[in-house]
Amino acid sequence: MVEYKDRLAEAMKNENVSTNDLAGVLGMTYQAVKKVLDGKSGAFNAINHAKAAAHLRVTSDWLALGIGPRNVGDEPQAPESKKSNTDITIRQYDAAGSMGHGLDLPDQPGVIQNLRVNKEWLSKNIRAYSAAKNLCVVTGFGDSMQPMFNPGDPLLVDLGVTSVEFDAVYFFRVDNLGYVKRLQRIPTEDGLVIRAISENKDAYDPFNITEKMDFQVIGRVLKVWRSQEF
């Protein structure tokens, strides 16, 4: 019989989240989370259960009871005859659940909750992505990337990219502050340096990301839509 602990362990494995990581997100001790995973304690309380589901990107119903869609944004399976044109929901990135404390996205004028596309649009408009389930929509914030995009514009981000393997525009955090900037790999005598570069160069200077910083690549920006008022 599949129990809460089994679904929790499965979701943690799929998202590469350790017991220590989840304990930090929930504000619990390692031992308390381990007891749940070992079946020596019941499910988390309602608040920690909701936090765990959000962080592991699974639905609350699936984690609690094993019912409904497993992943947030997943649709129920359609009959084989109707699967070819099934719509895909690209969900909003949950900044509030990030790190368990919330990710600060400055000057964000509201959020775009999701994008709904069909498979044909995805195949013809997005050249390369890790998996459809890893795509999310981030609402543009701040003015550091103007004129590439404006605050409030939708950005399509691939959460499956979590390292800077080549120069591109990334969605990342330093401490609990979110950024969208071009990241450039610069070789130096002391090793590789990652430089964060804004499009709005007149107002924002580039800065280097060092090993001592609490830095995490959340995803790579694949596409942006730039609004223009008439």
Overview of this structure, please?
The chain is globular, with a radius of gyration of 19 Å. Mean pLDDT is 87; it is low at 80-84. A hairpin with a 2-residue loop joins β6 (177-188) and β7. It has a seven-stranded antiparallel β-sheet, with no helix packed on it. Strands 1-2 form a two-stranded antiparallel sheet. The protein has helices at 4-14, 19-26, 30-37, 46-56, 60-65, 119-125, and strands at residues 87-91, 114-118, 135-139, 154-158, 168-174, 177-188, 191-197, 207-209, 215-224. It is an alpha+beta fold and 230 residues long. It contains six helices and nine strands. It folds into two domains: 4-65, lambda repressor-like DNA-binding domains (434 Repressor (Amino-terminal Domain)); 81-224, Umud Fragment, subunit A (Ribbon).
Give me the count of strands: 9
Task: Tell me the domain tally.
Answer: 2
* Strand line-up in the sheet with most strands: 3-4-9-5-6-7-8
Kindly name the structural category.
alpha+beta
Over the alpha carbons, how many angstroms does the gyration radius reach?
19 Å
- Mean pLDDT rating: 87
Query: Strand count, sense and closure of the main sheet?
Result: 7 strands, antiparallel
Query: What share of residues is helical?
Result: 10-25%
How many angstroms does the end-to-end distance come to? 60 Å
Low-confidence region ranges:
80-84
H/E series: HHHHHEEHEEEEEEE
Question: What's the tally of helices?
Answer: 6
**CATH homologous superfamily grouping of the largest domain:** Umud Fragment, subunit A
Identify the overall geometry: globular
- DSSP strand content: 25-35%
User: Would you tell me which CATH topology of the largest domain applies?
Assistant: Umud Fragment, subunit A
Question: Can you name the CATH architecture of the largest domain?
Answer: Ribbon
What is the CATH level 1 assignment of the largest domain? Mainly Beta
InterPro entries: Lambda_DNA-bd_dom_sf, LexA-like, LexA/Signal_pep-like_sf, Peptidase_S24_S26A/B/C
Keywords: DNA-binding, Transcription, Transcription regulation
Protein name: Transcriptional regulator
Organism: Castellaniella denitrificans
